[in-house]
Amino acid sequence: MPTFFNKYYPVRKILFFLGEGLLIFISVLGILVLFSSWKIFLIDPSEYTLRAITVTLVFQLSLYFYDLYDLRKPGTTADTFIRMMQAFGVGCILLALIYTLFPSIIISTSIFWSCYLIICASLLIWRSLYYLVLERKLFAKEIILVGTGETAAKIAMEIKNNRESGFVIGALIGTTAPIFDHGDIPVAASLADLHGNPRLSGIERIVVALDDRRGTMPIADLLTSKLRGRIIEDGISFYEAITGKILVEKVNPAWLIFSEGFDCGRMTYLVKRILDLALAFIGLSLSLPVTLITAILIKLESPGPVFYRQERVGERGDVFSIIKFRSMRQDAEKDGAVWACQNDNRATRIGGFIRKVRIDEIPQIWNVIRGQMSFVGPRPERPIFVDQLVQKLPYYSLRHSAKPGITGWAQVCYPYGASEEDALRKLEYDLYYIKHQSFFIDLLIIFRTVKTVLFQKGSR
After folding, report:
1. Hey, where are the domains in the chain?
2. Residues 5-9: contacts with CB under 8 Å, at least 24 apart
3. Nearest CA to 379 among 412, 343, 342, 330?
4. 214-221, long-range: CB within 8 Å, 24+ apart, which pairs?
5. Whole-prediction pTM value?
6. Which residues 6+ apart lie within 8 Å of 310 measured at CB?
7. Residue pLDDT, tens place only, 348-390
8. In the β-sheet with 205-208, what is the strand arrangement from edge to edge?
9. Spatial distance between the Cα atoms of 271 and 222, rounded to a whole number of angstroms
10. Are 328 and 341 in contact (CB under 8 A)?
11. Which of 238, 186, 170, 244 has its CA nearest to residue 210?
């Protein structure tokens, strides 16, 4: 999923989020004023406003944690209603805790449930209308896709499957038949062939997605279009922006060299280190009870050490020992190193649980304090697997230009990986992170990781 930092993030999605927040706010504020007094509100609106803002923030946070803002594939109205009720149930619990700490902003029971009913009804109507917009591709921008091969196929598939991409393909340009199902999208041999169609010739964005540009790039047509004010975009960059990953298999060295990004400055590095240390000390303090209980349970269940050390490849290819709670039998790798897999039968009962909720990762905080890891970055792999993957996957060694992390962009977007194919898919996300790493994207990844842990999505 693309981040909210990229230039293609649909304005309609931002409006949807803000509009939903405004609906919740107005519903609460309106009921408060209706059941209370207009005079009190006009004299001092701050009290009512604070209560409405509190409910709005808590309810929208709950909707986010239940993935109700991930609308790439909207569900049915019934499914939306059920998930919304679950999210609001969690929201009510959070509000109860907040009201316990700050009793001055409590909303009376009768008024609160009136607000609740109004919020549910208004949000269902609001979401139904937005689902209609997504279903019919309303307000989506049309593009002309130059290319009919694999790169064009990946872009077309992403636009088709992701209703929130904000784009639709108006026409394809290519001298050969598309290798993918293009439905009723018209195919032309050249951009000049579209001039007879007023609608298609008026499309302002052209995406060049040719697998091999040597001798096939329509330079004259593209230059003419550029001079007429059209936007000409590289297919790899376009794919990166709408997916939040880099199409590694089609990237050439020149694209990497001249592409913006991949330039983590000293200030970004310093801020990242400060954030790591702050989170490390907070994490160690909060996790101390869990750490003690886990250590006792591991020791009671099976013979062997509580902690497990394993060599991993870090920044600049340096090898270090990662620290984890032991989650497998002591003889788990008696036959040699193997990929970890889902429902691994080598895991103990306690080990299976702590892996599922990611408690086994807690000791890695010591690696963060020692400077060997960061909280956010590409997950470090074992040297034996790195040697294999460097030989088979293009640009795999670039992962080591950043400090490895406990969590990362690949982990929150593609949570499970147990093969070379998975390693390739995760590499696409890792390179995207390395290219765009910043304080804000780190916070986003940490926030999404918390959601993943709480709801056990993508756990391994």
Report:
1. 11-135, 141-244, 266-455
2. 5/436, 5/438, 5/440, 5/441, 6/241, 6/242, 6/244, 7/241, 8/165, 8/166, 8/167, 8/238, 8/241, 8/242, 9/166
3. 412
4. 216/175, 218/146, 218/173, 218/190, 218/191, 221/190, 221/191, 221/192
5. 0.84
6. 321, 322, 324, 382
7. 888 888 887 888 889 999 999 999 999 999 999 999 999 999 9
8. 187-188, 167-173, 141-146, 205-208, 231-234
9. 42
10. no
11. 238
Supply the Cα-derived Rg of the chain in whole angstroms: 26
Instruction: Show Cβ contacts of residue 233 under 8 Å, excluding neighbours closer than 6 positions.
Output: 205, 206, 207, 208
Could you give the CA distance from residue 421 to residue 418 in angstroms, rounded to a whole number?
8
As given in the structure block, the two tokens for residue 297 are 């349970």
User: What are the DSSP calls for 79-127, one per residue?
Assistant: HHHHHHHHHHHHHHHHHHHHHHH-GGG---HHHHHHHHHHHHHHHHHHH
User: What is the average pLDDT across 405-425?
Assistant: 84
Q: Look up residue 427 and give its amino acid.
A: L
Q: How far is CA 103 from the centre of its chain?
A: 36
Alpha helices in 202-358 (DSSP H): 219-227, 235-243, 253-258, 266-301, 349-356
| CA neighbor of 343 nearest in space, from 453, 459, 422 | 459
Q: What is the DSSP letter of 249?
A: G
d(CA 236, CA 222): 17
Report the amino acid identity of residue 185: I
What is the rounded distance in angstroms from the CA atom of residue 51 to the CA atom of residue 134? Answer: 33
pLDDT at 335 over 70: no
* Strand, helix or coil for residue 228: coil
Helix (H) or strand (E) holding 132: helix 109-135
Kindly compute the dihedral angle of the four CA atoms of residues 278, 351, 459, 154, in this order, to the nearest 10 degrees: 110
Cβ atoms of residues 241 and 155 within 8 Å: no
The answer to whether the CB of 211 falls within 8 A of the CB of 390 is: no
- Residues 344-356 have pLDDT tens digits of 667 788 888 888 7
Across 381-410, b (16+ Cβ under 10 Å) vs e yields bbeebbeebbeebebbebbbebbbbbbbbb
CATH code: domain 141-244 is: 3.40.50.720
* Spatial CA neighbour of 375 closest among 441, 458, 302: 441
What type of residue is 214?
R
Question: Identity (one letter) of the amino acid at 435?
Answer: K
